[in-house]
Design a protein that fits this description.
The structure is a homodimer. By secondary structure, chain A is an alpha/beta fold. Chain A has one domain (3-298): 3-Layer(aba) Sandwich (UDP-N-acetylmuramoyl-L-alanine:D-glutamate ligase). The first copy, chain A, contains 10 helices and 13 strands. Chain A has helices at 28-36, 54-62, 126-134, 148-153, 155-164, 172-179, 184-192, 233-247, 253-270, 284-298; strands at 3-6, 10-16, 19-26, 42-49, 70-73, 79-84, 93-98, 118-121, 141-145, 167-171, 198-202, 208-212, 216-219. In chain A, helix 3 packs parallel to helix 5 (155-164) and helix 9 packs across helix 10. The longest helix of chain A is centred in the last third of the chain and has 18 residues, at 253-270. The model of chain A has no long low-confidence stretch (mean pLDDT 96). The interface between A and B is large, with 49 and 49 residues.
Chain lengths: 306, 306
């Protein structure tokens, strides 16, 4: 266990123009840990209810995800999200959210996790993100994810999380919202001022940007003819990134760029099927293949006007 | 003269959150020819009125733009667009459109232009684009631009233009609209079926995509702290591309990629000031500098999971 992932473990019912799944494995910690499992040894801190299926547990175990930190509350039910997507599937519409046992979730970090050098704070209440951080020994790297809901309701607490993060992962709309600006470079500059080494701006099908204090990297998404279900793409992206970083020998600019490659590849496989169906069954060669595609798709030949 | 550019020459009044210009030089052929002038020898086919200022003529001449094809209708007034942008300036709002002499514009290609090997069909009525093509000797390469208005009102005529183009330049929203799909790779596939060698999808601040039959290239835009006026960005982009292609020795995949680099650089300078102020005063070193930035910003390090 070298990567602590704090977040939700859920049961999802999802409908898209290309199909439907009921009671499928979901949640930010689930998607992230499965994506990270190809690179690192993740352990989850989360909570599920007595209804959480044995086969979900087995899938996570099979992927090498440590479950000591996954609390099973036999008296409650697992967090259940039901939603749908339309058209370009750019937006998730919620039908039902039953927080169930997740409503009173309080991250308790098992002793064996407290020295984990890498931490992914999934998208949960920033107070819980801070609570998780308070329980661990000084980690090497903390990546925090968030969402518009916390930006609107808890900006001050979120700022505290940002001050303790090494990487902030946020989407473009959220960056505009938090920084009250219409310029991404300006938003990144403001977020960097909180102290993180890098800001990652997620832009969905438009790819992702990596802003450092003196560096900039832009990576497109993999063009896909068919997207079946975008649920979990952002979590798979974050999991791929931190997973890759956790297995890298050094943390230089190229390593962070490779982290984005890993995240982008995992997100691209994630959306090609429902739930974690595809990301849980990948071969290393498939990951390498898409990473090579990204290199090919972005190659800028030398240019000199004389 | 090795590059024929057909399009509008206009007078613009533009207001953005960062300022305002009145009666400034504008129009698709203007922006495109100025951008192309750094690479090729463009000539314009368009029309202006008797009010068209001498200083605008002089600016175009100074940039080496051939004006034999620019008709000056002394009895009329120049096409005048007045508009404004707000917030992230993603959308232009029109206050006034006075077509004036442009209303009865009929492209007449001067004899000296008819053998031009490269042609840019700016965003005008597709019937006029076809009329221009009917007057020229078989060119080496035709790039056509268009807009949502023609897609909605003249889809059949536009399809005829697409069938005669080597490159279609279209923005993402227009591609969705024309192809009735929510998938860009699918839209590109449909457009390629009309026969062009390449489809270029413009995505504004998210950059541009180049789809070939068996190739794909994604290029981001240059991140800018300040955008003063987005007017003409798309035309400068198209002008930079075709200008670069017109000066290239061969037309292989890397040449087309470099074309996108040239277009992206010209668009990035265009939006940093009003009208053609910045694109008309560039040094070659400035163009090379931003081309080098694009290479640096997109470098994907090798990635191999073993």
């Amino acid at each position: 266990m070298n990567l602590l992932i704090v977040g939700s473990v859920a049961i999802d019912t999802v409908e898209t123009p290309l199909g439907k799944v009921e009671n499928a494995l979901g949640g930010s910690a689930t998607y992230a840990s499965i994506a990270a499992s190809y690179f690192a040894a993740p352990g989850i801190v989360g909570v599920v209810g007595g209804d959480f299926s044995r086969k979900h547990i087995n899938l996570l175990k099979r992927k090498g995800v440590d479950l000591e930190g996954l609390k099973i509350d036999r008296n409650g039910k697992t967090f259940h999200w039901s939603g749908y997507y339309e058209g370009d599937m750019n937006q998730a519409f919620t039908r039902k959210t039953h927080l169930n046992v997740f409503e009173k979730f309080n991250p308790i970090i098992p002793k064996s996790y407290r020295k984990a050098p890498y931490i992914l704070l999934g998208n949960i209440h920033p107070a819980l993100q801070l609570e998780a951080l308070a329980q661990v020994k000084k980690p090497r790297l903390v990546l925090c994810d968030t969402m518009n809901f916390w930006i609107a309701s808890e900006p001050k607490l979120l700022e505290k999380v940002f001050r303790r993060a090494d990487i902030i992962c946020i989407n473009d709309g959220e960056a505009y919202q938090f920084c009250k600006t219409a310029s991404l470079p300006y938003a990144a500059k403001r977020l960097l001022a909180f102290g993180p080494k890098y800001i990652i701006i997620k832009k969905g099908i438009h790819g992702a940007l990596l802003f450092g204090k003196n560096s900039f990297f832009s990576l497109p998404s993999i063009p896909l003819m068919k997207v079946k279900d975008p649920t979990g793409a952002g979590d798979s992206f974050a999991g791929g990134i931190i997973g890759y970083l956790a297995c890298a020998r050094k943390l230089d600019e190229n390593t962070f760029r490779r982290g984005l490659v890993a995240g982008t590849v995992m997100a691209s496989y994630c959306v090609e099927d429902f739930s974690c169906r595809k990301t849980s069954r990948l071969k290393k060669t498939e990951i390498n293949k898409r990473a090579a595609l990204l290199k090919k798709y972005t190659h800028v030949p030398s240019f000199k006007l004389s």
